[in-house]
Amino acid sequence: MSKKIIAIVPAAGVGKRALDVSNEGAAVPKQYRLLKGKPMLRWSVEALLADPRVEQVRVVVAVDDPRAQAVLDGLARVVVRPVGGPTRAETVSAGLADAALDNDAWVLVHDAARPGLPLSSLNRLIDICLYEQQGGLLALPVADTVKKAHKAAAFAPAEGCVLTGTAGKPATRYAVAETLSRESLWLAQTPQMFPAELLRKALLQAHRAGVEITDEASAMERYGVEPRLIPGDPRNFKVTWPSDFDLMEKWL
Ligand SMILES: Nc1ccn([C@@H]2O[C@H](COP(=O)(O)OP(=O)(O)OP(=O)(O)O)[C@@H](O)[C@H]2O)c(=O)n1
Ligand SMILES: C[C@](O)(CO)[C@H](O)COP(=O)(O)O
């Protein structure tokens, strides 16, 4: 019998970096902002539901979240769980514990902030992980030259040159410290797919060690597993900054 594939969508973030300080009305967490008239979270969940092998999508939101249920209304195979934590990793761990999955289930973790996931990428990730019986993640090889930065000395901007950062404060300026080789560098996306029980243990081990974990694959790496890098798609970028909303709307 084939093993279950369950998706977990961490959606308990506040979207700090996406806040447009000039637009007070945008202070809703980014996963609830509308893209072409539909909330970002709904786009992301529907993208996962497009592969019928995903048996259930478990959306993990903040404890006091007032919006998710209505936003996902009418979608079959979806449950909303208000057990999110203070970090993404803690939200995912809480979602895993809450799901109480079979030991041999697979879990797909997908950011609520990646509504542009193409079905072809999702199909590829699941196909390869199941065929190789190995966990993996969507990712893109780095295409640009990579610079390591350090803080530069402050300087006075020329007249008319806007150099403010958030909340009108002067932006930090950076300069190149070093150029890094991009060979063998990839940018991690989601979904990331792993055996659920292994992922639960890996996240717990990282948490106990006090290590900051920004994606599931890094917890698995620490645990001694080599996740497969599976080519993703640029449309699956993470909506992070104010300007990303317009760009994502063009893709969707
Ligand atoms: N405590 C948290 C923090 C983040 N996330 C989720 O993790 C995903 C990726 O995180 P990110 O893009 O960093 O979202 P935010 O944390 O909301 O953004 P920011 O860091 O700008 O505040 C998002 O779907 C976000 O809702 C979460 O579930 N729980
Ligand atoms: C999981 C992730 O989207 C992979 O790129 C990313 O690490 C999330 O990071 P964030 O700091 O929570 O945005």
Give structural notes.
- The strands form three sheets. Strands 5-4-1-6-10-7-11 form a seven-stranded mixed β-sheet, with helices on both faces.
- It folds into two domains: 195 residues, Spore Coat Polysaccharide Biosynthesis Protein SpsA, Chain A, CATH 3.90.550.10; 35 residues, no CATH class.
- The chain is built from seven helices and eleven strands.
- The structure holds cytidine-5'-triphosphate and ligand LQXTBERG.
- The ligand C[C@](O)(CO)[C@H](O)COP(=O)(O)O binds next to strand 10.
- One of its GO terms (molecular function) is nucleotidyltransferase activity.
- It holds the Pfam family IspD.
- Pathway: Isoprenoid biosynthesis; isopentenyl diphosphate biosynthesis via DXP pathway; isopentenyl diphosphate from 1-deoxy-D-xylulose 5-phosphate: step 2/6.
Protein traits:
252 residues; alpha/beta; Spore Coat Polysaccharide Biosynthesis Protein SpsA, Chain A; two-stranded antiparallel ribbon; globular; binds cytidine-5'-triphosphate; binds ligand LQXTBERG
